[in-house]
Protein: Nitroreductase family protein
Organism: Neisseria montereyensis
Amino acid sequence: MPCQELQHAEAIRRSVYALDKNLPLDQEKITEMISHTVLHAPSVFNCQSTRVVVLFGEEHEKLWELAKEALTSIVACDQFGQKRQEVNKFKEAAATVLFFEDLSAVRNLQTNFPAYADLFPTWSAQTNAMVQYAVWVKLASAGAGANLQHYNPIIDEHVAAEWSIPDSWKLYAQMVFGGIAEPAGDKKLDSLDHRFKVFGSNKVSETV
């Protein structure tokens, strides 16, 4: 992918909440796209600790029904209606990507490299975030909309039981995606003046 195309994909990647089931490409292509990211994404000490589960169709809808069930135990009655509407919007999408980290891989790093033991959980989370971002950009480049949710840990036990998730897998995020029923609104971008610095560049500054 030329740099300009990648930059365009990065720019159009947004949190899109109005989603439908009309995906712009078939499930096989999406599966290949996501699995390619999992295979090639960087990871701390090349531990390849990220695990991904993709739920389409009824399996995707089942996830968000389980989320509603889990919410009943922690959300006040007067707030549950709003949360139910929120979850129902996720259910209207086409699919969900579940992002996990295999804690056994992290523990192996801690055992083999004890000097960095305290840092590996943070680096593992950064590994997972890179996979999330890469998948999100790819979905955007393919014309799909997505948003990232964090219903963990309240859904963890439900997810593990329903899809036979190994005990060592820790759920980090859920990416809901589908066709774009309504695009995201305008996004305000903060100036780079206080967000970005360059030192040592050989570019000669222009004088005014």
